[in-house]
Amino acid sequence: MSALQPLPQDAWDAWTPDQLAKRLACFTGDWYVVGGWALDLWHGAQTRAHEDLEFAVLADHEQPCRQALKDLSFFTAHDGTLAYLPLSAPLPADIWQQWGADMNTGLWRVDMMVDRGTPDLWIYKRDPALTMPRTDAIRQTPCGIRYLAPHLALLFKAKYARDKDNTDFQTALPRLTRAETADLTLWLDRFHPQHPWITALQNR
After folding, report:
1. 8-11 LR contacts (CB < 8 Å, sep 24+)
2. How far apart are CA 3 and CA 86, in angstroms?
3. Helix count (H) and strand count (E) of the chain?
4. pTM score, whole prediction
5. Are 155 and 169 in contact, with CB atoms under 8 Å apart?
6. Whole-angstrom distance, CA of residue 96 vs CA of residue 147
7. How far is residue 83's CA from residue 75's CA, in Å, rounded to a whole number?
8. What would the pLDDT profile of 142-178 be if each residue is shown by its tens digit?
Protein backbone atom coordinates (compact mmCIF):
# COMPACT_ATOMS: atom_id res chain seq x y z
CA MET A 1 0.00 0.00 0.00
CA SER A 2 1.50 3.34 -1.05
CA ALA A 3 1.88 6.19 1.42
CA LEU A 4 -0.67 8.98 1.46
CA GLN A 5 0.36 11.72 -0.93
CA PRO A 6 0.55 15.36 0.18
CA LEU A 7 -1.74 18.05 -1.15
CA PRO A 8 -0.38 20.84 -3.34
CA GLN A 9 1.69 23.12 -1.13
CA ASP A 10 -0.45 26.16 -1.94
CA ALA A 11 -3.75 24.47 -1.01
CA TRP A 12 -4.19 26.40 2.23
CA ASP A 13 -7.39 27.40 4.00
CA ALA A 14 -6.10 27.63 7.55
CA TRP A 15 -8.16 27.50 10.69
CA THR A 16 -8.16 30.46 13.03
CA PRO A 17 -6.71 30.11 16.55
CA ASP A 18 -10.26 29.95 17.92
CA GLN A 19 -11.13 27.08 15.59
CA LEU A 20 -7.99 25.21 16.59
CA ALA A 21 -8.65 25.79 20.28
CA LYS A 22 -12.13 24.29 19.97
CA ARG A 23 -10.70 21.18 18.32
CA LEU A 24 -8.06 20.86 21.05
CA ALA A 25 -10.45 21.50 23.93
CA CYS A 26 -9.97 17.97 25.30
CA PHE A 27 -6.21 17.87 24.62
CA THR A 28 -4.33 18.23 27.91
CA GLY A 29 -0.86 18.76 26.42
CA ASP A 30 1.01 22.03 26.09
CA TRP A 31 0.40 23.92 22.84
CA TYR A 32 0.57 27.57 21.81
CA VAL A 33 0.19 29.71 18.69
CA VAL A 34 3.33 31.04 16.99
CA GLY A 35 4.06 33.12 13.87
CA GLY A 36 1.92 35.99 12.68
CA TRP A 37 -1.17 34.81 14.51
CA ALA A 38 0.74 34.93 17.82
CA LEU A 39 1.30 38.64 17.25
CA ASP A 40 -2.36 39.21 16.44
CA LEU A 41 -3.43 37.39 19.61
CA TRP A 42 -1.10 39.76 21.47
CA HIS A 43 -2.63 42.76 19.66
CA GLY A 44 -6.09 41.48 20.52
CA ALA A 45 -7.26 41.84 16.92
CA GLN A 46 -6.40 40.52 13.48
CA THR A 47 -4.11 43.02 11.74
CA ARG A 48 -3.67 41.24 8.40
CA ALA A 49 -4.68 38.15 6.43
CA HIS A 50 -2.91 34.90 7.39
CA GLU A 51 -2.33 32.19 4.84
CA ASP A 52 -1.54 29.57 7.49
CA LEU A 53 -1.86 28.87 11.21
CA GLU A 54 1.34 27.94 13.00
CA PHE A 55 1.30 26.45 16.47
CA ALA A 56 3.83 24.62 18.61
CA VAL A 57 3.50 21.60 20.85
CA LEU A 58 5.97 20.02 23.24
CA ALA A 59 7.72 17.03 21.68
CA ASP A 60 6.35 14.66 24.32
CA HIS A 61 2.83 15.84 23.52
CA GLU A 62 3.15 15.81 19.73
CA GLN A 63 1.70 12.36 19.09
CA PRO A 64 -1.31 12.86 21.42
CA CYS A 65 -1.90 16.19 19.68
CA ARG A 66 -2.03 14.47 16.30
CA GLN A 67 -4.47 12.01 17.83
CA ALA A 68 -6.64 14.88 19.08
CA LEU A 69 -6.65 16.25 15.52
CA LYS A 70 -7.22 12.83 13.97
CA ASP A 71 -9.53 14.29 11.32
CA LEU A 72 -6.34 15.69 9.81
CA SER A 73 -3.54 13.76 8.11
CA PHE A 74 -0.10 15.00 9.10
CA PHE A 75 2.90 15.32 6.82
CA THR A 76 6.42 16.04 7.99
CA ALA A 77 8.00 19.12 6.39
CA HIS A 78 11.74 18.86 5.92
CA ASP A 79 14.03 20.45 3.32
CA GLY A 80 11.07 21.39 1.16
CA THR A 81 9.64 17.85 1.12
CA LEU A 82 6.35 16.72 2.65
CA ALA A 83 6.02 13.08 3.77
CA TYR A 84 3.05 11.36 5.38
CA LEU A 85 3.42 10.49 9.08
CA PRO A 86 0.84 7.89 10.25
CA LEU A 87 -0.78 8.44 13.64
CA SER A 88 0.94 5.34 14.97
CA ALA A 89 4.41 6.52 13.91
CA PRO A 90 6.69 8.35 16.37
CA LEU A 91 8.15 11.69 15.39
CA PRO A 92 11.57 11.42 13.68
CA ALA A 93 14.33 13.17 15.62
CA ASP A 94 15.20 15.51 12.73
CA ILE A 95 11.66 16.79 12.21
CA TRP A 96 10.55 20.12 13.65
CA GLN A 97 7.48 20.83 11.54
CA GLN A 98 4.35 19.09 10.25
CA TRP A 99 1.49 20.25 8.07
CA GLY A 100 -2.01 19.06 8.86
CA ALA A 101 -4.23 18.27 5.87
CA ASP A 102 -7.99 17.87 5.67
CA MET A 103 -7.95 15.26 2.94
CA ASN A 104 -11.74 15.36 2.55
CA THR A 105 -11.65 18.99 1.42
CA GLY A 106 -8.16 18.92 -0.09
CA LEU A 107 -6.95 21.76 2.13
CA TRP A 108 -4.14 22.35 4.62
CA ARG A 109 -5.43 23.58 7.98
CA VAL A 110 -2.49 23.90 10.40
CA ASP A 111 1.30 24.05 10.54
CA MET A 112 2.48 22.29 13.71
CA MET A 113 5.93 23.02 15.14
CA VAL A 114 7.77 20.81 17.61
CA ASP A 115 8.97 22.45 20.82
CA ARG A 116 11.85 20.42 22.26
CA GLY A 117 12.05 22.37 25.49
CA THR A 118 10.78 21.13 28.84
CA PRO A 119 7.54 21.83 30.69
CA ASP A 120 9.37 24.60 32.57
CA LEU A 121 12.00 25.78 30.06
CA TRP A 122 11.54 27.31 26.61
CA ILE A 123 14.48 26.72 24.25
CA TYR A 124 15.13 28.64 21.02
CA LYS A 125 15.31 25.94 18.40
CA ARG A 126 17.82 27.80 16.21
CA ASP A 127 20.28 28.14 19.08
CA PRO A 128 19.61 26.13 22.26
CA ALA A 129 21.90 28.47 24.21
CA LEU A 130 18.98 30.92 24.32
CA THR A 131 16.55 29.74 26.98
CA MET A 132 14.04 31.27 29.35
CA PRO A 133 11.34 30.14 31.75
CA ARG A 134 8.33 28.94 29.81
CA THR A 135 6.19 31.31 31.85
CA ASP A 136 8.11 34.23 30.29
CA ALA A 137 8.06 32.88 26.75
CA ILE A 138 4.38 31.96 26.52
CA ARG A 139 1.42 34.27 27.16
CA GLN A 140 -2.32 33.77 27.16
CA THR A 141 -5.36 35.61 25.82
CA PRO A 142 -8.34 36.36 28.08
CA CYS A 143 -10.07 33.43 26.36
CA GLY A 144 -7.27 31.08 27.31
CA ILE A 145 -5.40 30.67 24.01
CA ARG A 146 -1.66 30.53 24.63
CA TYR A 147 0.77 32.23 22.24
CA LEU A 148 4.47 32.98 21.85
CA ALA A 149 5.57 36.31 23.32
CA PRO A 150 5.78 39.08 20.68
CA HIS A 151 9.53 39.72 20.83
CA LEU A 152 10.19 35.99 20.39
CA ALA A 153 7.76 35.78 17.48
CA LEU A 154 9.62 38.69 15.86
CA LEU A 155 12.98 37.00 16.47
CA PHE A 156 11.81 34.04 14.38
CA LYS A 157 10.50 36.37 11.68
CA ALA A 158 13.76 38.34 11.49
CA LYS A 159 15.59 35.50 9.75
CA TYR A 160 13.58 35.89 6.55
CA ALA A 161 12.21 39.44 6.86
CA ARG A 162 9.63 38.87 4.12
CA ASP A 163 7.12 41.60 3.35
CA LYS A 164 4.66 40.17 5.87
CA ASP A 165 7.40 39.94 8.50
CA ASN A 166 8.38 43.56 7.99
CA THR A 167 4.71 44.53 8.22
CA ASP A 168 4.36 42.56 11.45
CA PHE A 169 7.44 44.24 12.88
CA GLN A 170 6.28 47.76 12.04
CA THR A 171 2.85 47.05 13.50
CA ALA A 172 4.30 45.58 16.69
CA LEU A 173 7.10 48.10 17.24
CA PRO A 174 5.07 50.86 18.97
CA ARG A 175 3.57 48.36 21.43
CA LEU A 176 6.73 46.59 22.56
CA THR A 177 7.75 47.33 26.15
CA ARG A 178 11.20 48.67 26.96
CA ALA A 179 12.26 45.24 28.18
CA GLU A 180 10.95 43.51 25.04
CA THR A 181 12.66 46.11 22.85
CA ALA A 182 15.95 45.65 24.68
CA ASP A 183 15.78 41.85 24.50
CA LEU A 184 14.89 41.81 20.81
CA THR A 185 17.70 44.26 20.02
CA LEU A 186 20.17 42.07 21.89
CA TRP A 187 18.99 38.90 20.14
CA LEU A 188 19.08 40.47 16.69
CA ASP A 189 22.58 41.78 17.29
CA ARG A 190 23.60 38.28 18.35
CA PHE A 191 21.85 36.17 15.71
CA HIS A 192 21.36 38.61 12.82
CA PRO A 193 24.07 41.31 13.06
CA GLN A 194 23.33 44.53 11.15
CA HIS A 195 19.69 43.54 10.70
CA PRO A 196 17.70 46.63 9.62
CA TRP A 197 15.25 46.19 12.49
CA ILE A 198 18.02 46.95 14.98
CA THR A 199 18.13 50.61 13.99
CA ALA A 200 14.37 50.94 14.28
CA LEU A 201 14.45 49.39 17.74
CA GLN A 202 17.29 51.66 18.88
CA ASN A 203 15.44 54.74 17.63
CA ARG A 204 12.27 54.07 19.60
Report:
1. 9/82, 11/106, 11/107, 11/108
2. 9
3. 8, 10
4. 0.96
5. no
6. 18
7. 5
8. 999 999 999 999 999 999 999 999 999 999 999 999 9
